[in-house]
Amino acid sequence: MIKLLIVFFVLTLLPSKSFSDAAENWQLGFQDPATPIMEGIVNLHHDLMFFICVVSIFVTWMLGRTLWHFNEHQNKVPSSLSHGTLIEIVWTVTPAFILLIIAVPSFSLLYAMDEIISPAITVKTLGHQWYWSYEYSDYLNEENEAVIYDSYMIPEEDLQDGQLRLLEVDNRMVVPINTHIRLIVSAADVLHSWAVPSLGIKCDAIPGRLNQTSLFIKREGVYYGQCSEICGINHGFMPIVVEAVSLSHYVGWISNKLSEQ
Fold first, then answer.
1. Which domain holds residue 45?
2. Once rounded to an integer, what is the mean pLDDT over residues 103-120?
3. Which element (helix H / strand E) includes 212?
4. Is 47 within the bounds of a domain?
5. Which residues form the Cytochrome oxidase subunit II copper A binding domain (predicted)?
6. Residue pLDDT, tens place only, 11-45
């Protein structure tokens, strides 16, 4: 009885926090961030919205005042003023100053997105028409074969309870949390794009070229994405699913994959 009361207290009285790692119906805002980069993107967006709101309100007020005062019913005699040096300096310097303020955090975030910190794991992602394949070349089995597997979308008729339509795959990309990961992205046929919103990643997959990006996931979870480059008739049917697990779970998963090769 005491255990039931404790469970009831935890589930009903304590504040709960859920993460939306996939898009929801009628969603307007960002998905919950799971990486420092995505947190920076969300924070920068919120900061910019402040400037946008202030500028929009000010410009709307100016237009309203102009329409009100420069009306033939309000002023029978039109003004002879054609221009003013001071006001022209003000409305030129002020936007430039605002852009300088915005540039500092935006450049910092941009450089952070391009920085590759000494990775502990490298995962190669290869786009095909129309599925993804993943290669963990850091691990080799007794035959010197790396962990390589394909990831296909699960058809709607094969979905199980709780799985998301057009987003679930048969083989997820599994990575550990709190680990610096290097992603190498390429394509085997046409242009693709490996994009996962909650992770703040959108990297083009170009045939004959290796693009590189970094990943550092802060919490366990399952994160959904899709190819964001129009790549053919089944462009909307090659989803991306990243499962972030603890390091011990990841080691066990890699061991099983190596034994299966």
1. 36-76+83-114
2. 87
3. strand 211-215
4. yes
5. 118-256
6. 334 344 445 478 888 888 898 999 999 999 999 99
What global pTM score does this model have? Answer: 0.80
Burial of 138 (0-12, 13-18, 19+ CB in 10 A): middle
Q: Strands of 239-245's sheet, edge to edge?
A: 173-176, 239-245, 221-227, 192-196, 201-205
3-state secondary structure of 167: coil
CB 241 within 8 A of CB 131: no
DSSP type of residue 207? B
Q: Are residues 170 and 45 in the same domain?
A: no
Query: At residue 135, what are phi and psi to the nearest 5 degrees?
Result: -130, 125
CA 16/CA 7 separation, integer angstroms: 13
Strand order in 121-128's β-sheet?
146-151, 131-140, 121-128, 181-187, 211-215
What pLDDT shows up at residue 70? 78
Closest CA to 179 of 221, 223, 214, 140: 214
- Which is nearest to 195 in space by CA: 153, 231, 225, 222? 225
Number of domains in the chain: 2
Torsion angle in degrees (nearest 10) through CA of 132, 137, 143, 149: -10
The four Cα atoms 162, 163, 165, 166 give a dihedral, to 10 degrees, of 160
3 part of a folded domain:
no
Q: Which helix (H) or strand (E) holds 151?
A: strand 146-151
CB 237 within 8 A of CB 166: yes
Do 185 and 93 share a structural domain?
no
Q: Residue 95: phi, psi to the nearest 5?
A: -60, -35
